[in-house]
Amino acid sequence: MTGMQKGKERSIAALLAALLLALCCASGGAFAAMQTDTEKTLEQLLKEIDQTKVTVNKYKAEEKNALKALQQVEDDLENTRYRITKAEKDLKYLHARLSAVEKELTEADRALEESQKDYEKTVKNLKQKLVAIYKAGSPKYMEMLFSSASFSEFVGKADYLRAMVEYDKDTLDVLKEEQAAIADKSETAERKKNELEATKAGISKLMAQLSSDEESLTAKYGAREKYLAQVQKEKVKWEKELAEEEKQSRELEALIRSKQSGRSSAASSKFLGRMLWPVSGRISSEFGWRIHPIFKDRRFHAGMDIAVPTGTQVKAAAAGKVLDARYISGYGYTVILDHGDGITTLYGHNSKLDVRAGRAVKQGDTISRAGSTGFSTGPHVHFEVREDGVAKEPRDYLVRK
Ligand SMILES: [Zn+2]
């Protein structure tokens, strides 16, 4: 609370004490003078209440915005974390695929080596056989030929050797083909490996980006959370301030009302359909539940709004006594008339008041000028009819138009 507000509180406390003293001991004249000061203090306080209400509302709206902004970052953060989890899963899968491909490559290398060995062995065999055939003069070969019992057997043996050569040559072809197939497979695996590694590099890069995003979003979240806490703290502070101001105004109002005589709550049906319209104009808002034009929430509208230009003369709906003519929180400059039998009428948002509390008025007397003070979006008369303080449908009391 500010120093000025503390000062105000002290002055109200002093005033309350003085008033109590005046009520108990002082003469009527002294009381009247005090009353005027009290009313002035109350009016000032009620204006401050309206300002505080606007401030509280501003912080409530800002709180809503801050919450929305926080929710947005929270959503972004959640999305980023989901993408990180997915990227991690993708990387894990890629690692598995890479080791499988690497295994394929190792196997291909080993198979190639094996095939190469077979090939060399076959070449070696073939060479030996070719040497045997072409060096036909060698004693071993001759011996083999001549040991044949017949010529046909000799030919058979020669054919056999030739067949053996053919066989080795075929084997070599098969081995060549096999090696080509292995090399092909190895090449495919190598290509796959390169592809997987490129994908892995891409995902790793994405992961780095996502991690950086997460970090900045976390920082942003922290900042917005802090801001929300600040706004909420400020809102609570102003709500407390408002409660304090309202408590003070209630105390003052109670003191002011203590001078008013109690009303009898007798038959009030005599007012039905008999009241004058305080002004004639367009009905801009009816009595009952509605969305408040300033606070944008659902509130009960205790009266009827009649749109008229500022300065329009406002007439007493029925004869009676001025119960209150002052600034009331939300209502702005207001006149309340007491018609007896528990019936009161209220005229809100005036620009100027023409009567003072205690004055008697006749039906149709000008009591104020219309305006837009208090919580109002444009010049109009807010007209209420209450029976024992309970708001009633004003149309039931007004003469039929
Ligand atoms: Zn109204």
Description:
The chain has two domains: 1-259, Helix Hairpins (Orthogonal Bundle), CATH 1.10.287.950; 264-401, Glucose Permease (Domain IIA), CATH 2.70.70.10. Helix content is 61%, strand content 16%. It contains four helices and 13 strands. The protein is rod-shaped, with a radius of gyration of 52 Å. Zinc ion binds at residues 285, 301, 303, 305, 382.
Which structural traits does this protein have?
three-stranded antiparallel β-sheet, disordered N terminus, Glucose Permease (Domain IIA), alpha+beta, Helix Hairpins, binds zinc ion
Give a short overview.
The chain has 401 residues and is of the alpha+beta class.
Instruction: Kindly state the percentage of residues in helix.
Output: 55-70%
Q: At the first level of CATH, what is the class of the largest domain?
A: Mainly Alpha
- Helices and strands, in order, run as HHHHEEEEEEEEEEEEE
N- and C-termini, Cα separation: 52 Å
| Average pLDDT level | 82
CATH superfamily of the largest domain: Methyl-accepting chemotaxis protein
Bound molecules: zinc ion
Number of domains: 2
CATH-level-2 architecture of the largest domain = Orthogonal Bundle
Name the poorly predicted regions.
Answer: 1-10, 15-34, 259-265
Shape: rod-shaped
Number of strand segments: 13
- How many helical elements? 4
Instruction: Work out the strand percent.
Output: 15-25%
Secondary structure: elements and pairs:
Layout (H helix, E strand, L loop, with lengths): L2 H23 L2 H107 L4 H8 L4 H107 L24 E4 L2 E4 L6 E4 L2 E4 L5 E3 L4 E9 L3 E9 L2 E8 L1 E2 L6 E2 L4 E4 L10 E8 L2 E3 L9
Antiparallel strand pairs: 1-4, 2-3, 4-12, 5-11, 6-7, 6-10, 7-8, 8-12, 9-11, 12-13
Helix pairs in contact: 1-2, 1-4, 2-4
This protein binds zinc ion.
The site of zinc ion has 5 residues, from loops.
